Amino acid sequence: ATGIKDIMNMIFKTDTGGDLTLDEILKNQQLLNDISGKLDGVNGSLNDLIAQGNLNTELSKEILKIANEQNQVLNDVNNKLDAINTMLRVYLPKITSMLSDVMKQNYALSLQIEYLSKQLQEISDKLDIINVNVLINSTLTEITPAYQRIKYVNEKFEELTFATETSSKVKKDGSPADILDELTELTELAKSVTKNDVDGFEFYLNTFHDVMVGNNLFGRSALKTASELITKEN
């Protein structure tokens, strides 16, 4: 049978030193003090365990709360991703089709622009020809009177010079009056040609020169205009 001594030894790990009755144990102050100390130690250990258990419970609650919040965030993210995927499944084919239509329209538009560019180039070429023709006509209008005057003076001078030389050879032995008349006419022609007048030969000669070198209203040489017209026609 298990006695009180064995029970004490089992619970408190205390050697009672023999078969003692309960009354004897209660009268043994040293043994009671030892048992009391062991009880205080057990009580302290229990308090620590309880405190640690409470701490672990609070920490577990906090961790569980954080985990729940993270799960809620993940659920929200997943819901938004699902909504985006749904929207993409609905609208992506439409967007792709729309972009395809836009590309086709852009291609057709580029062909039209290319055609219009060619048309504008042809119009530009024709306008260039018209512009050159206008310059030619303006140049001719400006140069014709001068050319006609120069041509007339040259022909008249050659005619009088030839007549004077002929008369001098034929009429060496005759009256010098005829020769004098022809020389006088030639002299008068020379005077009219060299007279400083806005309607004189010198004016028209200067006008002709200015038109040829481009020193005129258009600032453009008649020779350059004629050259461009010939190039355009070829």
From TrEMBL:
<protein>
    <submittedName>
        <fullName>Vegetative insecticidal protein</fullName>
    </submittedName>
</protein>
<dbReference type="Pfam" id="PF12495">
    <property type="entry name" value="Vip3A_N"/>
</dbReference>
<dbReference type="InterPro" id="IPR022180">
    <property type="entry name" value="Vip3"/>
</dbReference>
